[in-house]
């Protein structure tokens, strides 16, 4: 952290020195004056008054106050004063010996509208500045004004469903949870498939280090874009095809999200303020058994397994004897645990900004505060953010920018014990918690106490996943605090006016994240001697990134029919981090929550951990675009990347790109079609690369043993030296069409693409122990294809003086297929012989994210139905002439199916359900994604916007259904089990209850569901107050709006919510619904004004 603070102080000092240098003067001379309107004689607020020297270089400057007055400290009497503001003619005055001026500015003839229309809409991504109509690649831009009335903590949530080819899903409905962004599918099996984020032309580090161990924190749920306040964003541009992303190098293989923040404008200072208040409600949950129904289920399950009744003399949780007051009161309830941990969520957000400037200096500054309490108790998110964007014209040829942003975040999450399957999460625990158990403890006299009922043990268990969920929500803590500051400086010099421009950018990114969790004794009820008691974790990471970019942009004038732009860009990035973690237990008191106090670290699951690492990336880019006669455009680029994560032989790589655009509508044969505004065809081909996850893997790394011998610790090699690791390379082709008709009343963008990723990086791959190692950190193993198409339709079907009706629609189709996979490394995972697990393969010609298992056929209604049948439908007869009954995994397990057990299809008709009966069940990649919605505007005051999102034809595993219908242990079950098999002859699809026995919940098609959905995502009604009313309040604008989010979801999925994604970074990851908090139903009232 010392390194970060030192650099931060240097950066702030440089900014202060730069700006104060313009105001330092050896001569203490002050010139005063007033600026007024020559016609009305009214004072002019915000006029710029600058001192210029003989070479027209700016020396210092000020702006006028509310009365038009100014006072400026000048350097030399021989200089001049330049007074200017928007809408008025600039005046230049010689200073000489005059110390007081009265300046009258004359209003210009041309108005603001004439100024605005001279500009052209373009895509400013920090490289070439190309007008949108001349783009040769697949690019989509979304204005912040299009989504400003949505209620979202981060901009990626607001973009959900609005951009074709961009699939955005929520990791959780808890405050501060992240969104998973996939542009044109999953392009890597273990590398990051998240897009590169670029803010104001510079790459933005969006996450904590991937190999940082958060312990009990949820790394996957970390929200990458929460550090960028939506209120500060001007526009978002998404680069989708490989030719566009190739310009951004090794971190852009999965696409690029370019964010441009708001900047100052010429004019009087304007204050903007916005407020939103949101109420959040939990959607309908899965109905569960009450205490009475549960008390009937458990004895039945026990009887089916043992053949004897449950002994309630020893199992007093089901005794229900009024004489046993303590057990009768504490285990005689009908508790809805899910409802008990659910609350009404509240969110409030305030943003205030100041924007203005003159022709020389412009500024935008903002402060925002966001606070959200989640619908699950114990969850909350708080953010304080500030931004200052300064633009200064030093002279006609030199311009300077300085941007500084700061974000403080404070996130509270529910405590988790680090289990990988998600069954330990609070809402999952609440679903299966014994419903006959009381939330609060009753004493021996039957009186309720204020203490949560957390017994040391009961029939349900005594470990993680069985604790009182309400006590866990209140007492167990899991907190993350983030501090981030990002100063960015830009210097732009016109080396040859109107020909050659040079820009230099440097950005420092200081990001400190601290995760702290504590599991106290009163949340578990366990004895103080156990390591789960007073378990304290303290983890922090300090990440620092220094990025530079030097551009030389050449734009010669080649005549009316020719256009040309070229750029040489030299870039570098130095990223380093330090992390520390302490995980201990048995602190002396539940009030001592820090692991630094005396506590235990002897157990294998307790640890002290530290790590530091550094990686560097350098790049050179050459890119040029030529256009002829506004019809033919070609863009050619070549990027060279060097990355320190590779060995010397493969450290550098070249990534070329070429793209073209043919404006067909400009051809002579189209000139009579006046209703065609633009019709263009694009084609592109490009490459981009991806570096491995870990640093230093081309070295042999040694680790030390934890144990001692003769007072010394030994060391051992912890990895195989990887000298031949290659870049994971994505090659993409794209064919696109852009159509604009009827004065842009109808616009359509169509793209067809195919991306192939070669040399797929497989992380932490298991290898034979003969090598002396258990795994390889990275290895190149195969080829993955993503191909599909996208359509975006933007229409204005009706428009007159009063009414405007718009309708937008987008749809995307993506197909993901593994083409090659190495046979020398493991390509499967999952033990299908156990209940609750699915088989996962990396299988050629099947999609990534596929899962395999048994085909569920129903329930054996009686003993006769359990007989094994051959391919002809005849009963299989054993060697002694006996009839054979269906068995499971003979001879390894040899379980004989009984009436009431689940039926699995015997694919090979051998009477034995085993690995030869495993079939492909589905995959978690949606075939179609998109969104659509109309908007209705009346008199430019009333506006109604409706928006729908959808994901179609994809499969997920209903893990919640699996754990709430298996009737395997003492967990509570859903009301679906009320139709379970009970007696011979029963016809049902719910197997019998059997305690710790049977194979009724094997990984099978029973829990695989089509999660297709159509969601009524939002409805917004907004009202812009009339100009007369606004003027009477001395405001520039005033807008009031009401938004309802996640109003209704149309789906056949039986779980809480169908929006479940594959967890990133796992080569065998599949989409499993473990009852995380679903997206909440939200109702927002918002206000926005400017004055």
Compact summary:
The protein is mainly beta and 1091 residues long. The chain contains twelve helices and 55 strands.
Overall CATH class of the domain at 124-267: Mainly Beta
> What is the percent of helical residues?
under 10%
- CATH homologous superfamily (4th level) name of the domain at 124-267: TonB-dependent receptor, plug domain
Approximate shape: globular
Q: How much of the polypeptide forms β-strand, as a percent range?
A: 35-45%
How far apart are the first and last residues' alpha carbons, in Å?
A: 41 Å
User: Which CATH architecture of the domain at 124-267 would you pick?
Assistant: Beta Complex
Largest sheet: 22 strands, antiparallel, barrel
Overall pLDDT confidence: 87
Describe this structure in words.
Helix content is 8%, strand content 44%. By secondary structure, it is mainly beta. It has a 22-stranded antiparallel β-barrel. α8 (426-432) runs antiparallel to α9. The longest helix has 20 residues, at 2-21. The radius of gyration is 33 Å and the shape is globular. The two termini are 41 Å apart. Mean pLDDT is 87; it is low at 1-6, 8-27, 110-123 and 213-222. Its main location: membrane.
Write the layout of secondary structure elements.
Blueprint: H1 2-21, E1 29-37, E2 48-52, E3 58-63, E4 69-74, E5 80-84, E6 91-94, E7 100-105, H2 112-116, E8 122-124, E9 129-131, E10 139-143, H3 155-158, E11 166-170, E12 179-183, E13 196-199, E14 202-204, E15 233-239, H4 242-245, E16 256-261, E17 267-281, H5 291-306, H6 325-330, H7 337-340, E18 345-357, E19 361-373, E20 380-393, E21 398-412, H8 426-432, E22 440-442, E23 448-452, H9 469-475, E24 477-496, E25 500-519, H10 521-524, E26 535-554, E27 562-584, E28 607-628, E29 632-643, E30 652-663, E31 676-690, E32 702-709, E33 712-717, E34 728-741, E35 746-758, E36 761-766, E37 775-780, E38 782-799, E39 803-821, E40 828-829, E41 840-841, E42 850-853, E43 856-859, E44 887-888, E45 895-896, E46 902-904, E47 912-913, E48 919-923, E49 928-938, E50 942-952, E51 955-957, H11 959-965, E52 1008-1010, E53 1013-1024, H12 1027-1032, E54 1037-1051, E55 1081-1090
Parallel strand pairs: 1-7, 13-16, 44-47
Antiparallel strand pairs: 1-4, 2-3, 2-5, 5-6, 8-9, 10-15, 11-12, 13-14, 15-16, 17-18, 17-55, 18-19, 19-20, 20-21, 21-24, 22-23, 24-25, 25-26, 26-27, 27-28, 28-29, 29-30, 30-31, 31-34, 32-33, 34-35, 35-38, 36-37, 38-39, 39-49, 40-41, 42-48, 43-46, 44-45, 49-50, 50-53, 51-52, 53-54, 54-55
Helix pairs in contact: 8-9
Keywords: Cell outer membrane, Membrane, Signal, TonB box, Transmembrane, Transmembrane beta strand, Transport
Membrane topology: Multi-pass membrane protein
Pfam family, one: Plug
């Amino acid at each position: 952290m010392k390194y970060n603070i030192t650099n931060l102080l240097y950066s702030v000092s440089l900014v202060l020195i730069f700006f104060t240098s313009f105001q330092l003067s050896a001569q203490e001379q002050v010139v005063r004056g007033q600026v007024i309107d020559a016609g009305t004689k009214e004072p002019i607020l915000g006029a710029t008054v600058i001192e210029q020297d003989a070479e027209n270089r700016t020396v210092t400057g000020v702006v006028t106050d509310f009365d038009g007055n100014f006072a400026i400290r000048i350097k030399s009497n021989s200089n001049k004063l330049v007074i200017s503001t928007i809408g008025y003619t600039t005046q230049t005055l010689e200073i000489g010996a005059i110390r007081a001026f009265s300046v009258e500015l004359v209003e210009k003839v041309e108005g603001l509208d004439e100024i605005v229309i001279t500009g052209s809409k373009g895509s400013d991504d920090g490289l070439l500045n190309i007008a949108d109509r001349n783009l040769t690649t697949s690019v989509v831009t979304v204005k912040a004004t299009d989504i400003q009335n949505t209620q979202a903590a981060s901009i990626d949530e607001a973009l959900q469903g609005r951009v074709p080819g961009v699939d955005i899903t929520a990791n959780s409905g808890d405050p501060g949870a992240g969104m998973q962004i996939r542009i044109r599918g999953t392009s890597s099996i273990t590398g990051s498939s998240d897009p590169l984020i670029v803010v104001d032309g510079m790459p933005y580090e969006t996450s904590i280090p991937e190999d940082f161990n958060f312990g009990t924190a949820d790394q996957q749920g970390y929200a990458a874009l929460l550090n960028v306040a939506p209120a500060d964003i001007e526009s978002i541009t998404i680069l989708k095809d490989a030719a566009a992303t190739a310009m951004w190098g090794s971190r852009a293989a999965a696409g690029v999200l370019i964010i441009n923040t708001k900047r100052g404008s010429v004019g009087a200072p304007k204050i903007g303020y916005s407020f939103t208040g949101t109420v959040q409600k939990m959607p309908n949950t899965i109905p569960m058994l009450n205490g009475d129904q549960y008390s009937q289920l458990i004895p039945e399950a026990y009887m089916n397994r043992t053949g004897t009744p449950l002994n309630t003399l020893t199992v007093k949780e089901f005794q229900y004897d009024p004489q046993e007051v303590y057990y009768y009161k504490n285990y005689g309830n009908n508790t809805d645990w899910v409802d008990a941990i659910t609350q009404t969520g509240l969110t409030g957000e305030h943003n205030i900004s100041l924007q203005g400037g003159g022709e020389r200096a412009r500024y935008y500054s903002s402060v925002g505060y966001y606070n959200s309490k989640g619908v699950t108790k114990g969850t909350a998110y708080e953010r304080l953010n500030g931004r200052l964007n300064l633009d200064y014209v030093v002279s006609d040829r030199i311009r300077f920018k300085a941007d500084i942003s700061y974000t403080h975040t404070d996130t509270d999450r529910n405590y988790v014990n680090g289990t990988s399957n998600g069954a330990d999460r609070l809402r999952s625990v609440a679903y299966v918690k014994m419903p006959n158990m009381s939330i609060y403890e009753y004493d021996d006299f039957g009186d309720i106490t204020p203490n949560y009922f957390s017994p040391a043990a009961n029939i349900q268990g005594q470990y993680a996943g069985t604790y009182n969920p309400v006590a866990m929500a209140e007492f167990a803590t899991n907190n993350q605090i983030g501090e981030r500051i990002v100063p960015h400086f830009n210097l732009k010099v016109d080396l040859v006016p109107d020909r050659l421009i040079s820009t230099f950018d440097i950005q420092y990114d200081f990001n400190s994240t601290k995760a702290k969790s504590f599991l106290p004794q009163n949340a578990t009820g366990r004895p103080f001697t156990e390591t789960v008691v007073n378990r304290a974790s303290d983890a922090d990471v300090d990440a620092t990134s220094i990025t530079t970019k030097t551009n030389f942009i050449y734009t010669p004038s080649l005549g009316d029919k020719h256009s040309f732009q070229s750029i040489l860009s030299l870039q570098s990035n130095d990223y380093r981090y330090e992390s520390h973690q302490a995980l201990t237990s048995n602190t002396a008191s539940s009030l001592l929550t820090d692991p630094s106090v005396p506590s235990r670290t002897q157990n294998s699951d307790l640890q002290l951990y530290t790590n530091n690492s550094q990686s560097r990336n350098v790049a050179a880019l050459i890119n040029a675009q030529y256009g002829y006669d506004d019809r033919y455009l070609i863009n050619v680029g070549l990027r060279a990347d060097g990355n320190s994560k590779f060995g010397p032989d493969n450290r550098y790589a070249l990534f070329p790109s070429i793209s073209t655009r043919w404006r067909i509508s400009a051809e002579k044969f189209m000139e009579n079609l006046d209703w065609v505004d633009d019709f263009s065809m694009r084609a592109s081909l490009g490459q981009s690369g991806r570096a491995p996850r870990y640093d230093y893997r081309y070295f042999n790394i040694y680790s030390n043993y934890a144990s001692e011998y003769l007072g010394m610790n030994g060391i051992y090699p912890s990895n195989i030296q990887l000298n031949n690791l290659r870049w994971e390379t994505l090659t993409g082709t794209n064919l696109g069409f852009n159509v604009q008709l009827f004065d842009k009343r109808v616009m359509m963008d169509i793209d067809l693409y195919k991306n192939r990723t070669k040399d797929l990086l497989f992380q932490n791959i298991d290898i034979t122990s003969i090598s002396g190692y258990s795994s390889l950190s990275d290895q190149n193993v195969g080829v993955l294809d993503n191909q599909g198409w996208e359509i975006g339709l933007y229409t204005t079907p009706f428009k007159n003086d009063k009414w405007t009706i718009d309708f937008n629609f987008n749809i995307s189709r993506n197909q993901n297929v593994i083409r090659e996979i190495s046979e020398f490394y493991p390509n499967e995972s999952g033990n299908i012989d156990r209940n609750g697990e699915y088989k996962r393969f990396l299988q050629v010609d099947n999609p990534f994210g596929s899962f395999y298992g048994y085909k569920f056929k129903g329930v054996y209604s009686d003993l006769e139905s359990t007989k094994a049948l051959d391919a002809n439908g005849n009963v299989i007869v054993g060697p002694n002439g006996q009839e054979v009954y269906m068995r499971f995994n003979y001879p390894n397990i040899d379980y004989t199916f009984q009436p009431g057990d689940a039926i699995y299809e015997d694919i090979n008709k051998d009477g034995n359900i085993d690995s030869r009966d495993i079939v492909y069940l589905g995959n978690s990649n949606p075939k179609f994604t998109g969104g659509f919605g109309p908007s209705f505007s009346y008199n430019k005051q009333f506006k109604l916007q409706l928006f729908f999102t959808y994901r179609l034809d994809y499969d997920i595993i209903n893990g919640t259904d699996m754990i709430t219908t298996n009737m395997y242990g003492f967990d509570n079950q859903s009301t679906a089990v009320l139709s379970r098999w009970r007696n011979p002859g029963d016809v049902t699809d719910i197997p019998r209850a059997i305690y710790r026995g049977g194979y009724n919940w094997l990984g099978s098609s029973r829990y695989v569901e089509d999660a297709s959905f159509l969601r009524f995502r939002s409805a917004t009604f907004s009202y812009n107050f009339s100009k007369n009313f606004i003027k009477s309040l001395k405001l520039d604008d005033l807008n009031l709006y009401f938004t309802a989010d996640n109003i209704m979801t149309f789906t056949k999925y039986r779980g809480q919510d169908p929006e479940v994604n594959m967890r990133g970074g796992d080569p065998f990851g599949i989409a499993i619904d473990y009852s995380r908090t679903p997206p909440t139903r939200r109702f927002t009232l918002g206000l926005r004004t400017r004055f």
